[in-house]
Amino acid sequence: MECKCFDPQWPADELLMKTVAIVMTTAKVFTAAVSCITALMLVHIIPDLLSVKTRELFLKNKAAELDREMGLIRTQEETGRHVRMLTHEIRSTLDRHTILKTTLIELGRTLTLEECALWMPRRTGLELQLSYSLRQQNPVGYTVPIHLLVINQVFGTSRAVKISPNSPVARLRPLAGKYIPGEVVAIRVPLLHLSNFRINDWPELSTKRYALMVLMLPSDSASQWHVHELELIAVVANQVAVALSHAAILEESMRARDLLMEQNVALDLATREAETAIRARNDFLAVMNHEMRTPMHATIALSALLQETELTPEQRLMVETIMKSSNLLATLINDVLDLSRLEDGSLQLDIGSFNLRSVLNEVMCLIKPAASVKKLHVVLNLTEDLPEHAVGDEKRLMQIILNVVGNGVKFSMEGSILVIASVAKAEFLRDTRSPEFFTVRGDNDFYLRVQVKDSGSGISPQDIPKLFTKFAQNQSLTLKSTGGSGLGLAICKRFVNLMDGHIWIESEGQSAANRVQNSFPGLKVLLVDDNSVSRAVTRGLLLHLGCEVTTVSSREECLHVVSQDHRVVIMEVCVSGVDSYDIAVQIHGRFTKLHERPLIVALTRNTDKLTKENCMRVGMDGVIVKPVSIDKMRTVLSDLLEHRVLF
């Protein structure tokens, strides 16, 4: 029998279940709605969230960047502190050895280096030598070629360069055991231009010369070079260069000061000695002036009185001889005194106004008695433009003219003496053949030109330069009867120079009656001729005239031998083996100054116009046409030496 149970509460549970389902569905709907609302809200919130996240990341990066900048600032401050410290230590002395040694010590301490060394260029400039080392007291014997690739790389930049620890300049210590070498950098140290200084064993350096500094970190360590350390090294290298230049200047200045002090001491000593000598000479001249003039005055005066008495011809001749000798000695005393005062600069011109024409006439009055004894005719010609009065030293002007005219009388055996006084014209002052004159100071100033022409035997050209030298005479013409000390013209020249003027001599050479066989004694002639016979003949003519002859036979010999001592070069033209035209051109090129160049004369058989033109074109001074006699050679040399040209 089947039994069924009946639960009277079942409908209530079902109702509850339905209610719960409804509630849950409603909750889900609300949840979905909230989710939708949330999703809709997130659409607007997510960009803001992303913006916040981006800002957070930016701030983090900024903070990191600021940390780096602060670290860099701290590093720069540290670097600056080290640089200031190093600069102070380096510049605390101006001794170059102390500068370099201090640099290595301070860099080693600051950067904790295992080794720091400096390679300096040797005198040859081809090698670098290890001169200073942090760990080695006396590094010697280490050299490397300057043209190594690693050295060129370092010298090519102003920055510190990392180099291999195995490079030649980095092998500063012997290898011992197995270890990892530390990083090595090298930098150039400029050796500034020292054109005016030479520091003991250092060569003269330029801005393109460098020393090499090598720095090594400790071995078997993880240390590496940082940027700020490399910058520190570059700054220190520049500071070392500046300090070395200052040290060089100081050393040279001290050396120059010591040398100047030595020169000043020597100059002071020489000055005192010169002043002592001048005082002694002046004292001697004062004594000489007094002690010698007094007896000379007595001798001349008594001789003059003795001439007035009755004397035998023989006695009168002796008295006249005494008078002449006394006058000559008195003149010599005056000349010596004047010359001494001229040379020490104590003689000053006595400037004043005087009658110029009267002075010239007075000179003639003094000269005519001596000229009349020799039956010489003396003529004075004063031009119309010559002023009556002038301002100058009347006494010295008279002394100059009297001396020059007196020489004309002394060396003239017959004929006349002509004295012409005029105002020098402007065209004369511009004449290239006359000496250069000083510029006339004003409109009222003028140059007085006095010409003295005599009919004496003349002066050979080689003797003219000697006439204005002290104690020099024309030995070939001076006769025993003329006498003289050789001081007159030398003193005249100094007086004329003191008056801003010039004095010179022009001579036509000795006359035929007074020529001697050796007309050109000591004249050095270079003869170029490749023909031995012709060369011997020409040499014989020149030797007969007293010349000193040097003979050569080729162009090479001529150019090797020719010098300033040769006054004349005579060369054969149009001969085989001797290119005379080329020789002349090369001689002109060698002697650029006219007074140093020998006179060049061509010796030729050709009389055509082309030869003469070719000689003139290459700068020859004349042509001698063969055959040549003694008289012809004498005339040629005389004209050549006087006029410096034969064309």
UniProtKB/TrEMBL annotation:
This is Uncharacterized protein. It comes from the Eukaryota.
